[in-house]
Every structure is written in structure tokens, then in C-alpha cells.
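C-alpha cells for HAD family phosphatase. Go.
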Amino acid sequence: MPIDLSGYEALIFDFDGTLVDSQPLNHRALATALRKHGVTVAWEWYARRLGTSGLDLLAQLGVPREVAVDVIDVWSELIIQEAATLRTHQTVVRWVKEARRAGLRRAVASGGGGPVVRAGLAATGLASLFDVVVTREAVEKGKPAPDLFLLAAHRLGVSPGRCLVFEDADEGLEAARAAGMDAVDVRPWVGAPPQNTAQRPVA
């Protein structure tokens, strides 16, 4: 489906679930990383919290912060080891390429860790399509706070109101709204069921 890009100077894309079908891998890796700590995480529970940052997710599971740091290190390494298995969402990638042809600036703004996101972009051949990559470590607050999107716009040199966001999670869509940006909910095009159909901003 074509997206009307007129009026925008930049497009900002979430990574997990938007550009790539990474959530099953992310869940498997998290479950493995938590196993030695005696914590289990069901897919259904995880799927309802897509878009939540790693530390926030672990806090909801009751994992102490000092343990969470170790879990995230192991979790990240497991994902990086399997980055070559990631598959892109081709409809979303076509929008990225369309934006490049139109001369629009392009960024990734992800609540994931920098090493994981950059490994995924490299493994899928997407890295060269983006001017800027912003990840969780770069901001004080992750989504649904607007910080990631605002920082991406700043680094792109584009005002927030001229940016269009692509997201697959309610937290990300809320963050885009808080940043004063229009947003496209990609779930209808990537085969993911909406988490809350009452909140689906579409540009």
C-alpha cells in the first residue's frame, strides 16, 4: 500500500517488529537468559508488552535491577548470535526505499540496545538505508516517552512536526504522538494483531 509522504522531510522507523520480524527470536533469547534465574516468561505475556524497554520489561517480571543488567547482557548476546536468521518486513522496507528515492531523511529509533539493533541492521542489509540510528542507551526514558523520536529528529536536522513515524506497538505510537509526530501503525501490513485497536493513528 502506498503511503503519502508529501509534507514530510523525514521518516523514523522502529526496529523490532516494524522493520524486522524479530519478536519470536527476542522472546526465545529472553526466556533462555532468564532460565538460570528461575524466571519464566510466557509468549502471551511478552506479546502484550511489545515496545517496552528491556529494563522496564524485567522490572515488570520482578527481576532486581542488579540481576537485570546481567540478563540483558546475556539476552543481547543470544540475539546477536542469531541475527542472521532475522527476516525483514518487505512492505515496510519498500517504504524506506521509497523515502530514499524521494530524498527524505531516514532514521531508526528503537527501544532496543545499540549492539543488538546494529547487528540486526547489518545482518539484514538494512544499515545502508538509514542516516541515523538511535537506541535506548541514548535517552533517559524509553517509549512511550517521546525521547527516542525527538532525538532522532534532532540528529536528522528535521523538526518533529515534519517527521512520520512507523511503529508496531502501542507504546511506540504513544511516543510518536507525545513527540508531536504523525505515525503509521504497521501491524496490518506485517501480520501482527493490533494490541489495542482503539489506538491506531494512521497518517
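Residues 194-203 have pLDDT under 50 and may be disordered.
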